[in-house]
Amino acid sequence: MISLSGSKEMLDLVETRLKEATKEQNNLWYETFFVVLGEEKQEGNTYDLFGSKWIDFEWVRESETVATMNGDSAWSPVLEFLVRLSSIYKLKINCTYEESGCDFGGWFAVYEGTVVDNRSASFDEYRYLEDPDSAIESFLDDIPVGCYDTTEQITNHSFWDKLTTEEKNVAIDTFNQYKS
Fold it and tell me: Would strands 104-111 and 92-99 be described as parallel, antiparallel, or unpaired?
């Protein structure tokens, strides 16, 4: 989730350029990033320039001075793009991101081009810090569907020490029932 705040005029301009850049598809990619930034196309590595190859997103205008972008990007968040967007449009941008397959999640904030927060964690740690109850529930839900092959995998999981004794007993009982 990407939250953007700034002046009405700047968010209007971003919104207009996003619509122009995505009129033929619902995502931003190499050349269209430049359209949104109002810059001439330059050569370079897409990951170095923008942080990711593309971003597929939904733009929602929350108010005259706040908007959100929710969506997916290719393997990594578009942090470099957000820095440039923030600098050009004088925006405050807060972003959270996660990718279970690559095992990461994080928090990023930039204010008028200056990065003020840039933290990342493993996917499980990120999920736990964002919503502990949901993270533990997902861990427990994964047990009866075959995500773990041994009790050691369960008891070595980073959430194991965060479980109550009752939850630990349920986890082991569920695993034993699944394996039998």
Answer: antiparallel
Q: What is the pTM of this model?
A: 0.86
- The structure tokens 């733009």 sit at 59
Instruction: Report pLDDT digits (tens) over 73-130.
Output: 988 999 999 999 999 999 999 999 999 889 999 999 999 999 999 999 999 999 999 9
As to burial, measured by CB atoms within 10 angstroms (0-12 exposed, 13-18 middle, 19+ buried), residue 141 is exposed
Q: Which CATH number fits domain 2-123: 3.30.70.1270, 3.65.10.10, 3.60.15.10, 3.80.30.20?
A: 3.30.70.1270
Domain ranges within the chain, ordered by starting residue: 2-123, 131-179
Residue among 98, 113, 91 at smallest CA distance from 7: 91
Residues 121 and 128: their CA atoms lie apart, in Å, by 10
- Position 101: which residue type? G
CA distance 115 to 49: 16
Concatenate the DSSP letters of all residues of 82-140 into one string: HHHHHHHHT-EEEEEEEETTTTEEEEEEEETTEEEEEEEE-HHHHHHHH-HHHHHHHHH
